[in-house]
Design brief:
Chain B: Keywords: Membrane, Transmembrane, Transmembrane helix. Chain A: Keywords: Membrane, Transmembrane, Transmembrane helix. The complex is a heterodimer of chains A (about 180) and B (about 90). Chain A contains six helices and no strands. Chain A has about 180 residues and is mainly α. In chain A, helix 4 packs parallel to helix 6 and helix 5 runs antiparallel to helix 6. The mean pLDDT of chain A is about 90. Chain B is mainly alpha-helical and about 90 residues long. Chain B has a domain of about 30 residues. Chain B has four helices and no strands. The longest helix of chain B has 25 residues. The termini of chain B are far apart. The relative contact order of chain B is 0.04. The chains are: A mainly alpha (about 180), B mainly alpha (about 90). At the A-B interface, helix 2, helix 4 and helix 6 of A face helix 1, helix 3 and helix 4 of B.
Chain lengths: ~180, ~90
C-alpha cells in the first residue's frame, strides 16, 4: 500500500479501477461458451481453407467419402433407434402384464425404473450420434489417406460407443423381463 | 486526502448492480439464433414415423424378443470405408 501511495494513487481508487476492469473482462470469460456447433464450424473453416489447395480429384474423393460416412452413420443409427423403440415397447408390455397379472409391479418398480432409465440414456446417445457431423482434419495432400483413416477410426469408436450403450440397455431389459 | 467510505460503498454497489444487469441481459444476447430456433423446434415436436422392429402382443415371449434385438456388428461397414480410403 505504501508503494501505491508513493505513486500518488489512493488504495481505494486502485481497487475500484480493478473492479471496473473485472466487470469488463468477466462477462467475456463467462459467456464465451464453446458449443458443439462452434467446434463444427471451426473444423469446417479449417477444412475449407486447406481443401482449396488440394487437387480437384482429391477434393471430389473427400466429398464423396464424406457422403458415405453420413450414409453409414444414418443407416446404423436408424437401426439402433428402431432397436431402442422396440426395447421401450417390450418394457411397456412387461409393465402391462404385471399390472394385469398378480399385481407384483410394486416389487419390481425399481427394476422397471432402472431399465427405463438405461433405455432412455441409450436412446439419447443414439440420437446424439445420429446428429454428429464428421469433418476431415486435413494435415496435407500427401497425407490424405491417413487423414481419412483417422476420421474413420474416430467415427467407428463413436458409433461403437452408441452401440455398446444399446447392448447395455438390452442386458438390463433382459434381466428385468426374466423376472416372472 | 481521504476517500469518503460512503462513496466507496455506493460505487462498489453500483459496479455490482451493473455487473448483474449486464450478465442477465448478456446471457440472453449470447444465445445464437440457431440455438433459439433449435429450442423452438424442440418445443413443437414434429412426428417422425419410426418403423417398429417388432410386433409385441399378449403371447409374445418378451425374453426372446429382447434377445433378438442385438444390433448388427458394424465392422463390415468400416472395412469397406477403409478400403475406399486406401484408394485415394
Amino acid at each position: 500500500m505504501r508503494t501505491i501511495s508513493n505513486l500518488g494513487l489512493h488504495p481505494w481508487g486502485v481497487i475500484i479501477v480493478l473492479l471496473l476492469w473485472w466487470q469488463i473482462i468477466l462477462p467475456v470469460t463467462v459467456f464465451a461458451r464453446v458449443t458443439p456447433e462452434d467446434i463444427v464450424n471451426s473444423k469446417k473453416e479449417a477444412y475449407e481453407s486447406r481443401v482449396v489447395n488440394y487437387s480437384a480429384a482429391h477434393r471430389q474423393n473427400l466429398e464423396i467419402f464424406s457422403k458415405k460416412i453420413v450414409e453409414v452413420n444414418k443407416k446404423r443409427t436408424d437401426e439402433l433407434d428402431r432397436i431402442m423403440v422396440a426395447q421401450a415397447l417390450i418394457l411397456d408390455e412387461y409393465e402391462t402384464r404385471l399390472r394385469q397379472g398378480s399385481g407384483g409391479q410394486g416389487r419390481r418398480a425399481d427394476e422397471i425404473e432402472k431399465a427405463r432409465y438405461w433405455i432412455t440414456y441409450a436412446h439419447e446417445a443414439v440420437a446424439y450420434q445420429a446428429a454428429k457431423i464428421y469433418i476431415f482434419d486435413l494435415s496435407g495432400e500427401s497425407n490424405i489417406t491417413r487423414d481419412a483413416l483417422n476420421t474413420i477410426s474416430f467415427f467407428q469408436s463413436e458409433l461403437n460407443s452408441a452401440r455398446s450403450k444399446v447392448i447395455n440397455s438390452q442386458k438390463i431389459l433382459t434381466d428385468v423381463v426374466k423376472l416372472k | 486526502m481521504k476517500f469518503p467510505k460512503v462513496l466507496i460503498i455506493i460505487i462498489f454497489l453500483g459496479v455490482m448492480a451493473t455487473f448483474v444487469i449486464m450478465s442477465r441481459t448478456g446471457s440472453n444476447k449470447m444465445v445464437s439464433p440457431q440455438i433459439v430456433s433449435q429450442n423452438q423446434a424442440a418445443a413443437t415436436p414434429t412426428p417422425t414415423p419410426t418403423p417398429v422392429l417388432i410386433n409385441i402382443n399378449q403371447s409374445s415371449n418378451l425374453e426372446t424378443e429382447t434377445k433378438n434385438l442385438t444390433p448388427d456388428d458394424f465392422s463390415g461397414d468400416f472395412k469397406v470405408l477403409r478400403e475406399e480410403a486406401g484408394r485415394f
